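WP5 quarterly update. Target: M23ase beta-sheet core domain-containing protein. Source organism: Streptomyces virginiae. Length: 503 aa.
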Amino acid sequence: MSVETTSTLSRFMSRRVRIATGLVCATAAAVALSAGGANADGGPEDPHGELPVLTAEDLGLPEGPQMMTAMAATAGDDRPDFQMPFKCGETWQGASRPDHSPSANAIDWTQGGSTVNSPVVASADGVVSKVRDLGGTSYGKYVVINHGGGWSTVYAHLNGFNTSTGATVKAGQQIGIVGSTGGSTGPHLHFEQRHDTVDQRITFNGAPFGGSGRWSKSLTSKNCETKAPEPKPEGPGDGGTGSTGMVDLASADLNGDNVVDVAAVEASTGKLWLYKGASNGTVASGGNRVLIGSGGWNGMSNLTGGDFTGDGKDDIVAVEESTGKLWLYKGADDSTISSGGSRVLIGSGGWNGMSNLTALNLNGDKIADLAAVEKSTGKLYLYPGNGTGLNARKEIGSGGWNGMSNLTGMDLNNSGRQDLVAVEKSTGKLFMYPGDKGYLSPRIMIGSGGWNGMSDLIGGDLLNSQLSDDLIAVQNSTGKLFLYPGTGAGTLGARKEIGVGGW
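Structure tokens (predicted):
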């Protein structure tokens, strides 16, 4: 796999194209891509046919309303603290459709070329009520976990089991591996949350996940061994009440002070918030954040910021998951972006077939370019910005990029060109791919491990006393926001906490 100090003027220009993206994603669905953008039908493929209704016996659960006091779960509609059924820090693409069997509430999860045999973990504490193999039909190999209070989860089409009926499991404990068994046409995990055996709308971290109609959306797992303390300390949320979490962090200078700000979507409300950056390497507290998008942003993904129009003002680019269209929201240097009615279409469809979108300026001009991974092939492409849209793409990574996550464009070696920073999923190592004349040089390890416990990596010039861009990331286990200062030599300094929790 493979992505120079000059004058004060060139350094200023490079800052205005510094960008980063938030949540990353991947899917096994193949898409057809044109040179200037991506084209597809805008929805996930159907990975399985009709699934029969599972009875209480099939689920290994008692008939009628149930209570399992041993798990200290409450009755009724008080859900357990459900997390994604994947390892902490992993990003997966969830999809559903109106005719999804057994109901539209069920979610099919994929992760590009790395889907098959990926670990599946328990979504919450519980007791395994059923481990069953239906062979080449229906759910195939599946596991059911009883969480108490009438709540259970179903994990289907597995390739193998790592648990047995009657076993007590903790959230995050591996129970199987992703496969394509039963009535499945491609590797994926079919996942359900049920109450008294009836499919319910999926929630993670207490917030609903999904959409209406035919949809596909990415999310990063916070199913971590160490949970954030309760009540949560004051963070991104209002006035110390805590937060259900922020997603899709993006960096962009939206107030024109030449210091990067952090934009983030509030998962529970779909609102887009701006946390203004200060040159001492801090961001505004939750009580001082600015609302820049009143709602609906949880239907957008892969947010990234940079000067895509060449007007000296940073903008926000995002994918509309329901249509696969790519939209540009122009920035105005007054802590605002254009409204939905004024947004500009720069990609007509199929962009939900791409993942890890990040602005990546490799040629050193003042217009941001866009890099993205093609989910079906793992190839990395660069779409050069032209001030009004994107030019024909070029391949800058020949494959294997669906094994990387949290791609982030930033000038880490102070060359005037951006470099690409990414986490290797299998090892948790952090790598830099130096930018060089429109392409990427061989990678350099800048973090020896543990980075798969961080998410929403973004880059930009936050600490102005340093010589290069800095890296910002969320610690999944605590919800804290950390700053890793750039040293100017392609390395990162000791981190400091800039957000106390709720991220």
